[in-house]
């Protein structure tokens, strides 16, 4: 299972600036980003490349495709928080605790366009099915 986020997600620096900007700036900023991500989650559900995980624990593999090399890796990868919260809000993950998200692997790659690939890997239900076969 996977989905793409066809946009450049904000860096930690951008989020910090929004938090400093006004009393509710950070919350509004985070909510808007999550809503944008949820749009891509719903799109993937319609395309049947993503479905709710329920109680199944998984690992996430997140690949950030970046058009330029201007942003630091740590600033890029900080948007994992927005992705996990959006997955939870959209009902794909029951919770983003370690009970349901066993591990997160992330990579930054140079590309012609900004986008993010989120893949679910090593899901326990899938492993149990493989053992039964």
Give a description of the structure:
It is built from 5 helices and 4 strands; from the N terminus they run βααβααββα. It has a 4-stranded mixed beta sheet. The protein is α+β, with helices and mostly antiparallel strands. α1 crosses α2. The radius of gyration is 15 Å and the shape is globular.
- Number of helical segments? 5
State the end-to-end distance.
20 Å
Radius of gyration, in Å, reads: 15 Å
Q: Can you write the helix and strand succession as a string?
A: EHHEHHEEH
* Widest β-sheet, arrangement of strands: 1-4-2-3
Broad shape:
globular
The share of residues in helices is: 40-55%
What structural keywords apply?
four-stranded mixed β-sheet, 42% helix, 4 strands, 5 helices, disordered C terminus, 133 residues, alpha+beta
Question: Could you outline the blueprint of secondary structure elements for this entry?
Answer:
Blueprint: E1 2-5, H1 12-21, H2 25-46, E2 58-66, H3 73-77, H4 80-89, E3 101-110, E4 115-121, H5 124-132
Parallel strand pairs: 2-3
Antiparallel strand pairs: 1-4, 2-4
Helix pairs in contact: 1-2, 2-4
